[in-house]
Amino acid sequence: MNFINFNKYKYKGGIDSIELHSIKGWIFSQNKIFNEVHIYCGKNLLVSCKINKRRKDIIKLFNTNQDCGFEIELKNNILKRLKNEKISVKVVDFDKLIKKNIYLISGRNKTQRILNEALRSQFLGSSGNIDGLMNDGLIHGWAKRNSHKKYLNIWVHCEKKSARILTEYKKRKDLPSKGIKDTSGFTINPNQLSNRFFNEELWFSFDRKGIFKLRQENKLILNQYKLEQTQSNNFLSIEKINEKLSMNNSDNSEFNKDKNIMSHDIKEIEKNLINFKLLLNKFENKIIKDKTKINFLIRFYRKFVLFKK
């Protein structure tokens, strides 16, 4: 009778991240014993992938030439195959005789909870990115959900508060080159946020708890003053006008006198325009909030009132 030498099947590594659209990590073993990663629900295989991603950090760490990385793509059709059984992630050897559980490197004990939250989520398969606050005063990004036509809701979070925000989906010509539908782009008007979100670091997610975040390379902290200045950047700049006039007419005292009068008038106009812009923003915020309430009432009516009929 042949016995398996389990000491031979030792490995290092595990899961780096569990997201709605993928599970990533790395596995290093002597002589590259393991070559696949499987996800199971009970004994049923849900999805698998090869361990064949290049990881320069792991190559350097173990002084090896092995391709130790893996990435399992998650699609929302997995939801139909889930049962009320334990979800697990395992490394598998070439002969598929040995299957060993792997866990989050950042914390073994939280692996099961996050696996359940991700794979049983209605947002499974979703991914997105926050590009940042652009020159138009809007937050730009994209969000997609494979095999699903509905637009995704986005939540914004800071240390003190969370809120679902209205996103305006728009076409973006740069997305198809990344394998993303051009209709996945969106913008967010920061003016819909309450003051509690300003001067705080913000992050965005698909869920209310803020567990499943949109990728975000740079920190985003909104400053009310800078935001108002950005949104009013089409207004006349009195400083630039003064600078240009003084360069061309430094020796003309009469012109300088008229220039000062004109500068004062333009400054008053600029001030009034900014105040008017802020007033419009307040009206826009109220419209956004009212629209959110109306949409909620419509969904409530369709779900409960029409269903009872």
Brief synopsis:
By secondary structure, the chain is of the alpha+beta class. It has helices at residues 56-62, 111-119, 224-231, 238-248, 253-308, and strands at residues 12-18, 22-28, 34-41, 44-50, 69-73, 87-93, 99-101, 126-133, 139-145, 154-157, 162-165, 168-170, 185-188, 201-205, 220-221.
Task: Please explain how this structure is put together.
- The protein has three domains: 6-119, Immunoglobulin-like; 126-221, Immunoglobulin-like, CATH 2.60.40; 232-308.
- The termini are far apart.
- Helix 4 packs antiparallel against helix 5 (253-308).
- The protein is an alpha+beta fold and 309 residues long.
- It has helices at 56-62, 111-119, 224-231, 238-248, 253-308; strands spanning 12-18, 22-28, 34-41, 44-50, 69-73, 87-93, 99-101, 126-133, 139-145, 154-157, 162-165, 168-170, 185-188, 201-205, 220-221.
- Strands 4-3-6-7 form a four-stranded antiparallel sheet, covered by helices on one side. Strands 8-9-13-12 form a four-stranded antiparallel sheet, with no helix packed on it.
